């Protein structure tokens, strides 16, 4: 059966309905886009707040890391002249920077080690001298013993001959 076109009044009511539906869809799309844009704006605002909070919280850590890096670089060279040591030693500990305090402590520790090494070197040299003297005396005693043994053998031989 062939399809007959609808009567013209039905056609215009369908066209109005289609137009109404299109208008309603356009209105819904506009409302959805506004809601979506508002949500995106809120999300962007929240991201900005979170970044600001992160920077606020991370700031002290970043500064501390930078300070630590500078301190590490400063502490690589721990040499200190005797004059500067006495100058720093003359100040109160609360007046010294961390680097200066460490330099003083390292200097004192190293100085103690150097003094012990010097003392032990002197003692070692003394022991070497005493060992050399003792070795000389031992060699002299061995020579005297050998000479005494030879003399004793000579005396024994002379005594044996006289007894015979």
TrEMBL record:
It comes from the Eukaryota. Keywords: Coiled coil. One of its GO terms (cellular component) is microtubule organizing center. Residues 110-144 form a coiled coil. GO terms for biological process: cilium assembly. InterPro entries: PIBF1. The keyword NADP does not apply. PANTHER family: PROGESTERONE IMMUNOMODULATORY BINDING FACTOR 1 (PTHR18950:SF0), PROGESTERONE-INDUCED BLOCKING FACTOR 1 (PTHR18950). This is Uncharacterized protein. It comes from Vitrella brassicaformis.
């Amino acid at each position: 059966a062939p399809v007959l076109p609808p009567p013209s009044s039905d056609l215009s009511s369908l066209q109005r309905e289609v137009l109404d539906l299109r208008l309603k869809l356009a209105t819904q799309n506009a409302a959805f886009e506004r809601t979506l844009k508002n949500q995106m704006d809120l999300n962007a605002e929240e991201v900005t707040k979170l970044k600001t909070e992160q920077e606020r919280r991370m700031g002290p850590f970043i500064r501390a890391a930078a300070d630590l890096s500078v301190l590490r670089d400063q502490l690589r060279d721990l040499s200190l002249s005797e004059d500067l040591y006495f100058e720093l030693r003359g100040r109160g500990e609360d007046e010294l920077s961390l680097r200066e305090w460490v330099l003083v402590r390292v200097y004192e520790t190293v100085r103690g080690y150097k003094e012990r090494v010097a003392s032990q070197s002197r003692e070692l040299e003394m022991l070497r001298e005493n060992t050399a003297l003792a070795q000389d005396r031992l060699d002299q005693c061995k020579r005297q013993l050998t000479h005494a043994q030879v003399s004793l053998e000579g005396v024994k031989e002379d005594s044996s001959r006289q007894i015979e």
